[in-house]
């Protein structure tokens, strides 16, 4: 499904840019301020996280025409799932939710490296756009 293919690229790009906002803020302060405002919005974290995880899971299950099952979309799907999970963990930190100890450790690990995961999501989106028939992209 080409709609899902395009949606995966757009969501990975948006979520990745928001997660890697510290990199953009250093080079472009006005863009960094805008991304800071967007990333602090709880609604974006919730909706963006759910959308990224849902599209990532759908990319694993549904195949684009002429592509290899699961492996063809593995990198963008995993990037979307991880980036969306980070946004959902950040959203859960704002709410008085009690996470199990093991899940809190996973959340701490992912949130600590959110800039790196954001760059990975952006790279997966860009590479997936330009190399649509490549294996693992």
Structure description:
With 137 residues, the protein is mainly alpha-helical. It contains seven helices and no strands. It has helices spanning 2-19, 21-27, 29-40, 42-61, 74-94, 101-112, 114-130. Helix 5 (74-94) runs antiparallel to helix 7. The longest helix has 21 residues, at 74-94.
Secondary-structure map:
Elements: H1 2-19, H2 21-27, H3 29-40, H4 42-61, H5 74-94, H6 101-112, H7 114-130
Helix pairs in contact: 1-4, 1-5, 1-7, 2-3, 4-5, 5-7
**What distance separates the N and C termini?**
15 Å
- Total domain count: 1
| Number of helices, counting only DSSP H or I runs of 4 residues or more | 7
Q: What is the molecular shape?
A: globular
- Round the Cα radius of gyration to an integer and report it: 15 Å
Going by helix content, strand content and strand pairing, the class is mainly alpha
List the helices and strands in order: HHHHHHH
Mean pLDDT: 84
The count of DSSP E runs of length 2 or more, i.e. the number of strands, is 0
User: Which segments are poorly predicted (pLDDT under 50) over 5 or more consecutive residues?
Assistant: none
Q: What fraction strand? A: under 5%
The major pleated sheet works out as: none
Helix fraction by DSSP (H/I, runs of at least 4): over 70%
